[in-house]
Design brief:
Blueprint: E1 2-3, H1 29-38, E2 45-49, H2 55-59, H3 70-84, E3 96-98, H4 108-115, H5 119-122, H6 131-148, H7 153-170, E4 187-191, E5 201-203, E6 206-208, E7 221-222, E8 225-229, H8 245-265, E9 270-273, H9 279-287, E10 291-293, H10 298-308, E11 312-313, E12 326-327, E13 330-337, E14 343-350, E15 358-362, H11 367-396, H12 412-418, H13 422-432, H14 447-454, H15 456-469, H16 474-484, E16 493-502, E17 508-518, H17 527-536, E18 554-560, E19 563-570, E20 584-589, E21 599-600, H18 603-606, H19 610-619, H20 634-637, E22 638-644, E23 647-655, E24 658-662, H21 672-703, H22 711-745, H23 755-780, H24 784-798, H25 834-842, H26 844-849, H27 913-922, H28 924-927, E25 945-946, E26 955-956, H29 961-969, H30 971-981, E27 989-990, E28 996-1000, H31 1007-1011, E29 1019-1025, E30 1028-1034, H32 1037-1047, H33 1050-1057, E31 1060-1063, E32 1074-1077, E33 1082-1087, H34 1089-1111, E34 1121-1131, E35 1136-1146, E36 1154-1160, E37 1178-1179, H35 1181-1190, E38 1194-1195, H36 1197-1216, E39 1219-1220, E40 1223-1229, E41 1234-1240, E42 1244-1245, H37 1248-1259, H38 1274-1288, ...
Parallel strand pairs: 2-3, 4-15, 8-9, 8-11, 9-10, 24-38, 24-41, 36-37, 38-43
Antiparallel strand pairs: 1-2, 5-15, 6-14, 7-13, 8-12, 13-14, 16-17, 16-18, 18-19, 19-23, 20-21, 20-22, 22-23, 25-26, 27-28, 28-29, 29-30, 30-34, 31-32, 32-33, 33-35, 34-35, 36-40, 39-42, 40-41
């Protein structure tokens, strides 16, 4: 059975749409009648078997209309077909195409379906707007009319729908020939106040506000010849020359009349002039019945020339070339009366080429209402034309038609007037606002809003802040500002992060940079043009001089939201033979490996916006291929291919890892759960110390050899030791109970409360040692002096040759090593073992012969030293002292040998080193004075702790931060600090027991006022434990106290500083020594003299800057300094003393799983270290650049804004203070996908040595070489730092990104 179909050309003036819209597409009656009268009928017959006609072919109406020669268009298609199937198809006869099924090749169906998308056919296709597209246009129009508050919105929608569908059908810009891809360039919208909305009309031509030069020219003209001029119709006089008036007038008349005669010879009916027309010319045109309009804008002349196919004549000389005049069906002037009773005349050019341009005339309201309607119509013209092209794109992609969305949307006017909660209001706005010009495009919520939605805690904070302050919080204001700014007028664009990368080394030849694309705008291009430029440009060399490869060996990337599109060009032959000069489209599923058919790109798809194509790829989910078993999304699961000239463009979408920026928080608190874990660990450690000590006591008792005692004393000793063993067991239980009770009764985050049990344990240790010493005194007292003499003789025999000891000099901090934890700040390599030192301190012999005893908890301190002067001391560095132990050479009888010390001489050979070691171990108990040969006890202390009855903080000589902790938590310091807040007159204070001394320097409870004080108070606090003097100087005590209180750290600051450990951070260039508190919350850095001096001068400005951050929301990433101190101690018992300067700051990486750490200064010179893979290794700038080539650090817009603003503020602040050499410390937390950042080391000023080094390197003096110096001025350092940080962290914009984020200049 054969199929025969006929079409009238006049029937295709309206698009083929679903039944409910048939009535709405009819134009005004007068224009419809004119079209039917003017257009001639054309019958085209296609005879073909129903069985092979492709379904898309049956779904479309194949007609030719508006073409100057339809038969020629049909022949072009037929000739293309003949070239492919010259032997299989019959000839074309007249206007009919007869096809015999037996003569058709097997694949004719697919090729014929492809050919229907060719340029020749597509120019005549009456493309459908699918139902989803029409529904989308209606919904967006309803939303815009509701938001603008225009009355009678339903009637306006009916009027506009007719005009929009007519534009979709008739307007066809020729982008290949240079037309703009934005159809709005060819749609003019005029507002004429007054009348009714039904008076609005659509014109195939131009309507402009213009009046004729004379009232006799008001008559309408049918089918006029239109002449367009840009030069004036007047005589050009020569300036600054004297001449007679009469000849001049005669010359002018002659020139103008001749010019008008030349124009009249062209036989125009209408002359449009850009400039003025003289009176002589006007009289001439009136005489010859010609209509003239002057002072017409060039843009209007170009629009008229386009619609009427006229040439624009720019000079008189062009008249000899027989310029082409335009024409239309009708030209007229129309005058309207507006509501203000004033008249306005319009020039109307009707019946022009419908494909070239049109005008929409809006009537039926006041001028403000029509102004709003004009904006809406302009946007809806864009939307409807885009949907026309998008429909064809989906067909060419072999994709299913979008479904109609039946969901009801709330009106935005209702949401904004009723909703008060900022988060809920923003959520409702985003959910109910139609933004995209495409249906089924889904934009996820902005990241911050989605994060706030998921976090109930943050929502409560925002609500409470709003309720208490009567002012929206910063987060609320940001969310509302973003939501209220959402509008389809401002969202017809996309911003992407684009880069051009060489395939061989993955190094970007064109660095990643944000690229803003306005859909169908100047920054956009057609999809087909992009494919052609990519293919034809692949043979060009890379524009980067250092890259010598062709563009074929490069690939482009476009990153947006959380995805990235990669575009590559491969050398693959065209999949359809003979179609090499056409763009062929298909896609391949990455999951099921199924491919869509090869389809030539239609002209409508060729004109589709490349920016919109990117938007569909990123945001149009669930686009499935039609008539295939593959059920995977074309955009996310398919690789799309475009073939041209035996090269194939490959487009693939992939997910990328986004990082959140984590800046130093304003409020800083350790996590309670971590404190609880540490508290449990501390309790376990103290429990183990209790168990080990009492087990060692019992072990000493059980291992005692009673045979060394006189027979008469052995029985009493057994009884005493038995009673002591029982008491040790009961005491052990009591101590464990005390520890457990303290743990239960104290707060879960109180780490210092357990020191109560620890101090009680130390007191028991001293009592047990005293009891053992008393046992020795009662039973072995007569042997003690002889044993000491014997020990002295044995030491002379068995010790090695002593090395010559020399006094230690002052050590520079840059060269000296910070002591390991468990050691004094002095060098400890020659110090005796800790256990032996305790035995020596606690042995009975030393108690009797030396002026030393172990301090107990209730011991009275020694006399305090005088208070230190208020003047600043010179900066001191750790000094080391070594005390030599001198043997007691007093005479006496040795209990073992029976001879005096003077008679003691060695009578045997000196043993070898190995024998010496063995013998020394055997008699070690003797020469240390342990005459009872007691088994050593397991002590819970190293002998370097200092305990005080009124404090739970144990001061440890090998943990410097404990000195600061004790000072800040002491009752005396807090009282003085409180009195300073009250502005009381202060005097230096020494307590009654002379154990503490505190004084201060300057005077001065508002935190901001305190931070803004110009002067500071420096407090020196010193205290004693026995004869050990410990001191701590607190700089700017009041300001740092206010800063800590504002950050919320004051309550736990002292607790955290009570314990610290050394932090081995390797890879950095500063060489500074660091410690971390045991809870990892704070970092303690040792300062050298230059840093200390700079920090002292820098501190007042730092407080002022931080007050701006605290109270005026100034963005900053400076790592907060919580104080700097000078500490020291002098312990005569061990002969050790120490003095050092310390800086306490926040630990940026607290409770983080940091995989990599970078110290960034923005320089590429000598900024590389060999990576070892250690967790704490600090990498530098060059390491980061290598890293981001493979794993870029992508961040979102809000993170980029915070980083850019913070770095800008901080660098400006530091440069004004002449500070440089600071770094941005970056830690990558892979567990949370966060970049933890903060500026550190910002206390080094531009000193004279830095200036000299910079001058030498810049000038080349003394061999400087004239290269870029590593040391630059603070201003240069600031600029370099800003630029580098902006390049290191790449902004990946989302749909709601601010275009101003694109950095200019």
């Amino acid at each position: 059975m054969l199929s025969s179909t006929f079409f009238r050309a006049s029937e295709v003036s309206e698009p083929r749409v679903s039944q409910p819209f048939r009535k709405s597409v009819d134009g005004p009656k007068e224009f419809e009648q004119e079209i039917q009268e003017e257009e001639s009928d054309l019958r085209i017959q296609f005879n073909a078997p129903d069985s092979w006609l492709p379904s898309p072919f049956l779904e479309s109406q194949i007609v030719f209309t508006g073409q100057p020669d339809p038969e020629r268009e049909l022949k072009r298609v037929w000739n293309r077909t003949k070239r492919i199937y010259s032997k299989s198809l019959p000839r074309l006869k007249s206007h009919s195409l007869s096809l015999n099924r037996q003569e058709l090749p097997p694949d004719f169906t697919e090729i014929y379906a492809s050919l229907r998308h060719s340029r020749s056919f597509s120019s005549a296709l009456n493309l459908d707007l699918n139902a989803a597209s029409l529904k989308h246009i209606e919904q967006m129009m309803d939303q815009l009319l509701d938001a603008s508050g225009i009355p009678d919105g339903r009637h306006w929608k009916e009027v506009m729908m007719k005009m929009l569908l007519k534009i979709c059908t008739e307007l066809k810009p020729d982008v290949r020939q240079g037309d703009e891809i934005d159809v709005r360039h060819y749609v003019k919208i005029k507002r004429i106040a007054g009348g009714k909305y039904s008076d609005s009309f659509y014109v195939q031509g131009i309507v402009a506000t213009k009046s004729p030069l004379h009232k006799k020219m008001l008559k309408p003209i049918q089918n006029p010849n239109i002449l367009i001029l840009t030069f004036p119709l007047q005589y050009q006089r020569v300036e600054s020359e004297f001449t007679s008036l009469e000849p001049l007038i005669a010359q002018e008349r002659e020139h103008v009349v001749n010019l008008c005669a030349r124009l009249h010879a062209l036989k125009p009916d209408l002359i449009l002039v850009q400039k003025s027309v003289s009176r002589i010319a006007l009289d001439y045109f009136l005489e010859h019945n010609l209509t003239v309009v002057q002072n017409v804008k060039i843009s209007l002349l170009e629009a008229i020339a386009r619609c009427t196919n006229a040439d624009i004549i720019h000079s008189i000389d062009k008249l000899v070339l027989s310029p082409k005049m335009g024409t239309c069906k009708r030209f007229s002037f129309k005058t309207f009366m507006n509501p203000e009773l004033s008249k306005k005349t319009f020039m109307v050019i009707e019946g022009a080429n419908q494909e070239m341009g049109c005008t929409i005339v809006l009537r039926g309201g006041s001028d403000p209402v029509l102004k709003q309607l004009k904006q809406i119509v302009d946007l809806m013209v864009f939307v409807s034309y885009n949907l026309k092209l998008e429909t064809c794109l989906l067909q060419d992609q072999y994709a299913q038609t979008p479904n109609i969305q039946q969901e009801e949307r709330e009106k935005l006017s209702v949401i904004k007037s009723t909703e008060t909660d900022p988060i809920q209001r923003a959520l409702r706005i985003f959910r109910n606002t139609i933004i995209s010009a495409s249906p089924d495009v889904f934009y996820p919520l902005p990241f911050l809003l989605a994060k706030l939605k998921e976090d109930d805690t943050i929502q409560n904070i925002l609500e409470n802040a709003d309720a208490t302050d009567n002012k929206p919080s910063l987060e609320s204001r940001y969310i509302l500002a973003t939501a209220d700014a959402i509008s389809p007028f401002t969202q017809q664009n996309i911003m992407v992060l684009s880069a051009n990368i060489c395939k061989g080394n993955t190094i970007p030849c064109i660095a990643p940079a944000p690229h803003f694309i306005e859909f169908y705008g100047d920054s956009d291009l057609a999809l087909g043009q992009f494919i052609e430029d990519t293919v034809y440009g692949s043979s060009l060399n890379c524009p980067v001089k250092t890259c010598e490869k062709f563009m074929l060996h490069h690939y482009r990337t476009y990153a947006h939201n959380n995805s990235r599109i990669t575009i590559t060009v491969d050398s693959l032959h065209c999949p359809v033979k003979g179609m090499e000069d056409r763009i062929m489209m298909w896609s391949l599923c990455k999951t099921c490996q199924e491919s869509t058919p090869f389809i030539p790109m239609s002209e409508e798809t060729w004109k589709y916006s490349f920016g919109k194509y990117l938007e569909l790829t990123f945001y149009h989910p669930h686009v499935l291929p039609r008539a295939m078993s593959c059920k995977h999304d074309i955009h996310t699961s398919h690789i799309r291919f475009f073939s041209l000239s035996n090269l194939t463009v490959r487009i693939e979408l992939e997910k990328i890892q986004m990082f959140e920026l984590c800046v130093p928080p304003m409020k800083r608190q350790p996590k309670p759960e971590l404190l609880q874990i540490q508290r449990q660990e501390d309790m376990n450690m103290i429990r183990e110390q209790i168990v080990q000590f009492y087990d060692s006591v019992v072990g000493r008792i059980q291992s005692f050899v009673y045979e060394i005692l006189p027979t008469a004393k052995q029985q009493q000793a057994r009884e005493d030791f038995g009673e002591m063993a029982k008491r040790a067991g009961s005491e052990k239980k009591l101590m464990l109970q005390l520890l457990q009770q303290t743990f239960i009764s104290s707060q879960a985050t109180d780490l210092l409360s357990l020191n109560t049990a620890y101090k009680a344990l130390l007191e028991k240790v001293s009592l047990w040692e005293a009891e053992f010493a008393e046992f020795v005194r009662k039973n072995l007292q007569s042997e003690s002096r002889d044993i000491r003499k014997t020990a002295a003789q044995l030491t002379r025999i068995f010790r090695e040759e002593p090395k010559q000891q020399t006094p230690k000099e002052d050590l520079s901090l840059e060269k000296s090593e910070f002591p390991h934890i468990g050691q004094s700040p002095s060098v400890l390599k020659d110090e005796e073992p800790a256990v032996d030192a305790i035995q020596r301190r606690l042995s009975v012999q030393l108690m009797e012969t030396e002026d030393f005893r172990y301090p107990t908890v209730n011991e009275s301190p020694s006399l305090a030293s005088p208070a230190v002067s208020q003047q600043y001391e010179d900066f001191m560095y750790p000094r080391e002292f070594e005390n030599k132990d001198h043997s007691d050479d007093e005479g006496g009888i040795n209990a073992i040998t029976g001879v005096t010390a003077g008679q003691m001489q060695p009578q045997v050979e000196t043993p070898s080193a190995g024998e010496r070691t063995s013998l020394m171990q055997t008699i070690s108990n003797l020469w240390t004075g342990n005459t009872a040969n007691f088994q050593p006890l397991v002590y819970p202390t190293t002998g370097k702790e200092h305990i005080f009855p009124d404090s739970n903080i144990v001061v440890r000589e090998d943990e410097p931060s404990s000195i600061i902790s004790f000072t800040l938590s002491s009752r005396h310091y807090k009282e003085k600090l409180q009195s300073m807040r009250s502005d009381e007159v202060q005097e230096p204070t020494v307590d009654d027991n002379h154990r503490y001394s505190i004084d201060f320097d300057d005077q001065f409870d508002n935190i901001e006022e305190t931070l803004l004080k110009g002067t500071g108070t420096h407090v020196r606090y010193q205290f004693w434990d026995g004869n050990t003097r410990i001191h701590c100087k607190v700089f700017y005590a009041q300001q740092f106290d206010a800063l800590r209180r504002n950050c919320g750290v004051n309550d736990v600051f002292e607790q955290s500083l009570a314990r610290c450990v050394k932090w081995d951070a390797t890879g950095g260039k500063s060489g500074s020594y660091f410690m971390k508190t045991k809870d990892n919350w704070l970092v303690v850095k040792q300062l050298n003299r230059l840093e200390m001096d700079a920090l002292y001068k820098f501190a007042p400005a730092y407080f002022e800057y931080m007050s701006q951050a605290f109270f005026h929301e100034l963005p900053t990433v400076l790592a907060k300094i919580f104080g700097f101190y000078r500490i020291g101690f002098k312990n005569p018992s061990t002969g050790k003393n120490m003095k050092m300067d310390l800086l306490v700051m926040e630990n940026l990486f607290y409770e983080r799983t940091i995989s990599r750490i970078f110290d960034l200064k923005g320089s590429m010179r000598n900024r590389h270290v060999q990576s070892t893979g250690n967790d704490n290794q600090v990498l530098l700038d060059e390491n980061l650049v290598e890293f981001i080539y493979e794993s870029p650090l992508f961040i979102r817009e809000h993170s980029k804004k915070i980083l850019r603003a913070s770095v800008w503020n901080d660098t400006l602040f530091l440069s004004k203070l002449n500070v440089m050499d600071y770094s941005l410390l970056v830690g990558i937390d892979r567990d949370t996908n966060e970049l933890v950042i903060g500026i550190v080391d910002f206390i080094r000023t531009f000193t004279w040595d830095k200036k000299l080094e910079s001058w030498v390197k810049e000038t080349g003096f003394l061999g400087g070489g004239g290269k870029e110096p590593t040391i630059v001025t603070p201003r240069q350092y600031k600029n370099r730092f800003r630029d580098s940080m902006d390049k290191y962290f790449l902004l990946v914009p989302d749909k709601f990104a601010d275009p101003s984020m694109i950095k200019k200049g």
